[in-house]
Amino acid sequence: MSHDGVPALSERRRVVEGVAFVVLALAAVGSGYRWLVGTTMPETAGLWLGPTTAVVGFVAAFTWRHREAMRTTDGVAMESLGVANAVTLGRGVLIGIVAGFVLLEPEGRYLWVPAVGYGVAVVLDSVDGALARSLGTESRLGTRLDMAVDTIGFLVAPLVAVAWGWLPVWYLSLSAARYCYRAGCWLYRVRGGTVGPLPQSLLRRPLSGLQMVFLWVALVPIVPTDLVTLAAPFVLVPSLAVFVRDFLVVTVLATEE
Question: Angle of helix 42-65 relative to helix 140-163, nearest 10 degrees?
C-alpha cells in the first residue's frame, strides 16, 4: 500500500497510463511535424513545433503535478486515470496542435487545421463530462484538468485567430481574463482581504460554451472576417462581465461578510 492509500498495483497502472499518454502525444506531435515538413518547409514545421510542444508539455506536467487529486468527489482514490480524463487529455493535445499555427502564415495547405482541431476539442468538451457522469468516474483531477484545458483553449484559439487576422486584437482580453482574475485574487489576499469560494453560476458554463463555438467559427476560413468582428463584442462583453462579477463576489462581498 502506498502513502496515499493506493495499492501498488494501481500505482503501476497509473504509471503505465501516463507513459501511454506521453507516447501517444509524441506520436501525434511527431506526425504533425512530419506532415508539415512534407507539405511546406522544415523551417515552417520547426516554428509549429515550439508552441505545440509547450502546450502539450504543460498539459502533461499539470496532470502529473495534480496526480494526487485522482480521487472521486468523495475523496476515494481512483485506480485508473479513467476514460473521461483520457478524453480531456486528448483535448489538450488537439489544442496544442492548434497552438503551433500561431507563428505560421495562413496558407492553403493547412488553412483548415486550426478550425478542425479546435472544433473537435470543443465537441469533446461535452463528451468527457458526460462520460465521467455515466461511468461514475467524476474526479477532482477531472475537474481541475477540464478547467485547465478550457483555459488553455481560450488562450490558444484567440491567439491564432488574431495572428491570422480573423479576430481583432482586443479579443485577447478573453485570454487574459482568467489570469487577471487569479492575479487579482492573489493581490487582494496579500493585502489582507478575504477571498471566498466561487459560488455556482447559471451563466458561467453557457457563456463558456458560447465562447468555444464562437472561437471555432472565427477559425473557419470561409466565415467572413467582417461578420466575426461585428459579432465579437456581443460575445466577449458578457464573459468579461462575469469575470468582474465573480471577482467582486469572492473578494469585496466575501470581506464584507
Answer: 160
DSSP-based three-state secondary structure for 16 = helix
Report the candidate in 123, 227, 113 with the shortest Cα–Cα distance to residue 167: 227
Q: Exposed, middle or buried: residue 254 (CB in 10 Å: 0-12, 13-18, 19+)?
A: middle
pTM above 0.70, yes or no: yes
Strand segments, DSSP code E, in 8-69 are: none
Task: Single out the residue of 140, 163, 153, 159 nearest to residue 76, CA to CA.
Answer: 140
* Stronger pLDDT, 140 or 58, i.e. the higher one: 58
Q: If DSSP states are collapsed to H, E and C, what string results for 127-189?
A: HHHHHHHHHCCCEHHHHHHHHHHHHHHHHHHHHHHHHCCCCCHHHHHHHHHHHHHHHHHHHHH
pLDDT band at 255 (very low <50, low <70, confident <90, very high): low
